[in-house]
Amino acid sequence: MESLGRDHLGERVLLQSAADRRQPGPGSSFLEAQASSSFALVPRAARQKKSRAFVMPTDRDEFVRIRALVHHAESGAAGYDDYHRSAPVPPPRAPSTMTLDQIRQWIAATPGQQHAIGRYQIIPSTLESLASRATLPGSTLFSAPVQDSMASILILDAGYAELKNGAITLDRFMDNLARIWAGFPMASGKSAYEGVAGNRATISRKFYAERMAEIFPVGP
Fold first, then answer.
1. Contact 155, 171 (CB under 8 A)
2. Stated pTM of the model
């Protein structure tokens, strides 16, 4: 598990018990198909056009590796400085150099467009939820470490601790992640939000399963 010393959101959030953490559900990154700021309102084909190959990080940290896979499925080469490319008014500068309040100001000033932002394409409601849970002030930079920590909280929400203690299977964990990030396929091979405003999985279930098996190998 990622060192807590490297986490910028604080031990209180990342050490909360499995019983206290929410399971994936309404409020996660891609679950606001009716909201004007939802990433899900634009077909995925219009959102990202990328052909880059996935490279598994050499870092053995499981959170680092899962986050890299999320990046591959959800955002483009700009990574931490990515944003929803259909937005007619982009952020005023690189997202990783903006404070949370500056991102809020951009969102407020550009109603009706897409606002998914950063390496993990976080939409406004999820950003607000995570900032509240971690008690982040508006002056907090949406930096790479902060984005990573936010993604790590969502990975914990998907049942990382339960997977590690044997309470859920890897397939269940994969499905939980797929309910948070629409680019991941469910067991059916389709996005949990398939057909919702054109959403679809961006990777195959086979590819997804193979990469997750690399992250969580079974046996000696």
1. no
2. 0.81
